[in-house]
Amino acid sequence: MWVSKKPVAVLLVLGIAAVAGVIAVVNSMGSSIKSINLPRIGPACVVSADGGEVALDTVQMANAATITAVGVIRKMPERAIVVALATALQESKLENLEHGDRDSLGLFQQRPSQGWGKPDQLVDPRYSSKKFYSSLKRVKGWQNMRVTDAAQRVQKSAYPEAYQKWAEEAEVLAKALTGKATGAVACTITGEPAMRGQTAIRKVTAGLKLDWGRGLGQPVTQPTGLTLAISNIDTGWRYAHWLVSHARDTGLERVRFADLEWHAPTGKWQPVTDDRKAGNAHVVVEVFS
Predict the structure, then answer these.
(1) Interatomic CA distance for residues 167 and 148, integer angstroms
(2) Residues 143-157: tens digit of each pLDDT
(3) Is 6 exposed, middle or buried (0-12, 13-18, 19+ CB in 10 A)?
(4) What is the C-alpha to C-alpha distance for residues 157 and 176, in angstroms, rounded to an integer?
């Protein structure tokens, strides 16, 4: 789901109240039911940039971060990333779908029968994002088109105006995920971590390498996490925001950069005032032990 600007807080409050009500009902049923699994209630992530806000769940957030990373490493301008994100918001709500209209699949609802690729390729967010950007580059003058017109030239949808309603949300996401905003991706991760320790470190390292490629450099691993060397502050925030976006499925507890720290249970970026400061030259990651 997505939410822009003021309704975010209201929906978060309502979501928390709904969860509390369900838990109360379950508890009243007796001790035979120990717990319930509610992995995707409400928007766990809030992205803020240029006065706008977008709320997504953690799965949507991770997919948005991957779409952005693929665009960055392919040297696509921010405008292309906006078009890609708006397209995925319209086509799949940033869900990596294994179904759709006729044989449509994945984030962009691309069709094997139309030459986009094999089914197993189209449900790979990296592959489908690359295919989208490659097709967009072939559209003459796309840089000067409205978001919906550029998207439509790629997608050839029956609803050519549908992409424009996502333009503002896509611009907020692109600004944050390309590193042009500070501490802009805030995801709250509660409950039992998906993984811990060395398993978590291996998972996040593999994901970083898949999304960011050779430009990432070599992450330096420690017993509690890893460190990334950073060439400039925009790059630092790209990686930091990517890490927070993927924190739910990689077992991240903390991310530090530029004297700020994100902590999974609180979901906030806060100043770091002690010797744990990371500065502007490194992004420091800690996993749950």
Answers:
(1) 8
(2) 999 999 999 999 999
(3) exposed
(4) 28
